[in-house]
Amino acid sequence: MSDPQIATLAELLAGANSSAVRIEPGDDARALLPHLGQLTLVEVTFPKFRDGRGYSSARILREAGFTGTLRAAGDVLVDQLGFMVRAGFDDFAPDVPLDPAVVERTLARYPFVYQKAADARAPAWALREGA
Amino acid sequence: MYRYDKIDQAIVDARVAEFKDQVARRLNNEITEDQFKPLRLMNGLYLQLHAYMLRVAIPYGTLSGTQMRMLAHIARKYDRDYGHFTTRQNIQYNWIKLEQFSDLLDDLSKVEMHAFQTSGNCIRNISSDQFAGAAADEVADPRPYAELLRQWSTLHPEFSFLPRKFKIAVIASEADRAAIQLHDIGLQLRKNDAGDLGFRVWVGGGMGRTPVLAKVIREFIPVSQFLSYSEAILRVYNRYGRRDNIYKARIKILVNELGIEEFTRQVEDEWALLQPLALDAPQSEYDRIIAQFPDPAFDPAAPDSIDVSNPEFGAWVDQNTHFHKQRGYASVTISLKPPGGIPGDASSAQMDIIADLAERYAHDEIRVTHSQNLVLAHVRKVDLHALWTVLRAAGLATANLDLVTDIIACPGMDYCTLANARSIPIAQKIAAKFENDGAAQRDIGELKIKISGCINGCGHHHAGHIGILGVDKKGEEAYQLLLGGSGAEDASLAKILGPGFDENGIVDAVDRLIGFYKSARTGPDERFLDAYRRLGPAPFKDAVYV
To answer: What is the model's pTM?
Structure first.
């Protein structure tokens, strides 16, 4: 299901006056950076859950200061959600609806993380530094 | 050795709970087999010919006596009383039942062990030099940096769905005992002119269908920034590595297609963009981890001489001990290549004995080598005879390190679904020609034979002085012969010598190669590999294809 209000990357780069854009795994997320001011939603597609390029796209956008909605759409499975949240996604449009109970326990799973990423969690080394 | 703090333990516990949840959902058909496969692979669980195979992670190949005893327990309780040490310093069990798997993971977690990221398209277990912390030629112990990499790569949010698997090795000397030039990233710890520690960074090495030696993309990255630099490399790979063809998805293909200059430029640009994010661990974390790899409490009065009046013991000391930085000490290699054995296999009883010996004589540390042997890194020379006596009684004192019978072999068609041919019986037949004559083996000298049962190259045939590759030839097992490879600091890729052989033919061909080498070498100091490099393939070919 395509949302007509969401522009493709090509349309955006051609001057579409849209506040929402969809990027595919092969699109360069950095092409959006000059346009971040007009965007409130970026949808990153995952045609296959095994294709992990969207995680880099998400982090690149958050690292560049994008504060709008970052949506993971497509073959989004519950076992990828934890990684996606850490990569900066805050909205999800899975092809197959997720079980809310499984989502809840998945996202609450890890009391600690090792790396600094695009979410607000402090990495283990930062917690140890304060200990 | 690194010991978990409450954070490390909590992450392992959560990971075990997560995988149990995933298994339960698979059994309830809440997730498909296709969706489950990468989840179980990231927990080290493969489906092989006869059963599930589990690969347990041994970070940078270092483990304690307690951990080794747990590996023995697992072999005894869940498998057929043995385990198989691998070329990436891990251990595999070949006969695991899925219904026992969660109990097994609980057992492992009790001794700070797990099976995470030993498979799958993620950053795999970090490998290193088996003599780390003991070698006289290292600039510093590389293992604290391997531990930093372990933590950084564990459940990495951006790099858990890479185009393909990703292997990193870390060493700290000019001598390369970890084959870093055949890894996706090889890191060589060194000092710059100012005396600061940093890494020379190699990228894009690998074996498999397309063997490539890694290339240096940076001569020096300060240790304080090597994690963010690794992050930049991985990001370039994750974004641009090929995903259209599984056989062209490793980073070596990307490096070759872009060219090393362009690849390096992209990494450097990415790294510059990452700089403001302060992704690197602070000095306090380096200090905390380095403090867990102190020198053991060496005995300064340990005598440096060894009584080698027993010639069998003397031969073992000559062959299987390595020079130690501390006077009066040696590093001992325990050969897992006994006569008639399977390369890398150890029984539960042997693992228990090695655990005991490590505690009694070796400061409670054991290492796994990429040649599928074990090492006790810090042993007083005065204790070597007592140690050898116990090893000998356990069938663990074969004096063949780096000799013709110290063969690397993959599991091959005896276990593996990918294999085209058997590897283990070939290794056994070649070894059988020499294993009863230690003097003849020593006369041949260093000779690294490496055998793979298929083109994926898990037996490192590309890096063998003599490499053997099993192929399927019209439904029959056949073996190609390659010469001139090396996985050491003089890395090179072996080249096919000529037409392939059947099982007996390949064993005879190796015999003829060795016979020719002995007649053609300039002297006992010229290794097989050196003679091959000096003479080229032609005379070796003439000797084999008579």
So the answer is: 0.97
